[in-house]
Design goal:
Helices cover 37% and strands 20% of the residues. With 356 residues, the chain is α/β, with parallel strands linked by helices. α1 runs parallel beside α11 and α7 crosses α12. The radius of gyration is 21 Å and the shape is globular. It binds iron/sulfur cluster (SF4).
Length: 356
């Protein structure tokens, strides 16, 4: 880590903030939230800078009804639930997969969607339901898995999808904040897939300075510096890409083609936020035979949450975890009530560990 470069960035941020009383900057994704806490970034910033966490933690945004469906499916005969690790601890309306496990019924944790192919091949008499969560980052690998299943004629795989898209939820965030955000730190991994232009709408349509950033301390401080510099110089808001080592203008064309072949955008339910138009990826008609919602007659967009958790406000940057009355009382990492306390990238879990 180049200490002198970092110290120049910090001095630059303080200089730019000399005449600005307060600036709210949102880091959109959970990986940034985690890095910001891990590197102690708030401790070197002027007090006027308020960093808000956004809706970019995949586990946190999956609605309670998604977990309810997964628990119901797990209890059915001849169904195997395969999922990424964090999902097993997330509670639905009543319970989680982990708390529902029995001697014979338990979720299988996978590290890659491609492992699901092997599980399905080894259990031809069962249906393997994969809980497909994530954003534009995980969607290509899930699409690849479905394409492989098709090519290898593996028909006992179903996908229960809670894949979400960034632009529609960022539009909702901006609407909620009504001009009070000074800038956005955009997720570098999403941009690596979709290309830098994916976030062009932020300055062009919403007049908000936006920086595509990587995940180390210099990246994040660099993004904050560019945002405050743009504000103090009264410049027209722009989109900047300081993660060029991974993010190109157009992104990963192969990954985008895969996604386009398998998925289409549809309205999606977000935990504590509600339905957002065109914010979810669901399977296209030609892949319907792999769709768990279709095959098991589930509502494709679930039902609204009925929980006491403040995750919705936290994901929108309208509350901090400390403002939730359950924080560190009925909700902690060892006994999470809401999803934001489960994932290492969830705001509540990060806040609990680092007390921002
Ligand atoms: Fe939800 Fe727990 Fe966070 Fe409160 S502290 S918002 S209950 S995850």
């Amino acid at each position: 880590m180049d200490r002198s470069y970092i110290s120049k960035l910090i001095k630059g941020i303080w200089a730019c903030m000399a005449n600005i009383e307060e600036m709210k900057i949102m880091e959109v994704c959970g990986t940034h939230t985690q890095s910001i806490a891990k590197y102690g970034i708030p401790s070197v910033l002027p007090p006027g800078i308020k960093l808000l966490s956004g809706p970019g933690c995949p586990v946190c945004v999956a609605p309670a009804s998604f977990i309810d469906d997964a628990v119901r499916l797990m209890m059915m005969d001849n169904v195997i639930i395969a999922t990424f690790g964090d999902m097993v601890r997330v509670k639905g309306t009543e319970t989680s997969l982990d708390n529902s496990r029995t001697k014979d019924k338990k979720p299988v944790v996978v590290y890659s969607p491609l492992e699901v192919l092997e599980i399905a091949e080894n259990n031809r008499d069962k249906t393997v339901v994969f809980l497909a969560v994530g954003f534009e980052t995980t969607a290509p690998a899930i699409a690849a898995m479905i394409r492989h299943a098709e090519e290898k004629a593996i028909h006992n795989i179903n996908v229960l999808t809670s894949i979400r898209l960034m632009p529609p939820i960022l539009e909702r965030v901006l609407e909620k904040h009504d001009g009070e955000l000074g800038g956005m730190i955009c997720p570098g991994h999403v941009a690596a897939v979709m290309g830098q232009e994916y976030f062009r709408f932020l300055p062009d349509k919403h007049d908000i300075c936006s920086v595509i950033s990587g995940f180390d301390a210099a990246d994040i401080l660099g993004a904050i510096y560019l945002i405050v510099q743009s504000k103090c110089g009264d410049k027209k808001p722009e989109l900047k890409n300081i993660y060029k080592r991974c993010v190109s203008f157009n992104g990963n064309e192969k990954a985008k083609l895969l996604m386009d072949d398998v998925f289409t955008a549809f309205k999606g339910l977000w935990r504590g936020i509600g339905l957002v138009s065109d914010s979810a990826l669901v399977l296209k008609e030609r892949y319907m035979k792999y769709d768990a919602a279709y095959n098991f007659n589930l509502s494709p967009w679930g039902h609204e949450d009925a929980m006491e958790c403040s995750c919705g406000d936290i994901l929108m940057g309208k509350k901090t975890p400390g403002e939730c009355r359950l924080f560190d009382a009925a909700c902690s990492p060892t006994n999470p009530y809401g999803p934001c306390m489960v994932s290492a990238e969830g705001s509540c879990s990060v806040y609990y560990r680092y007390r921002r």
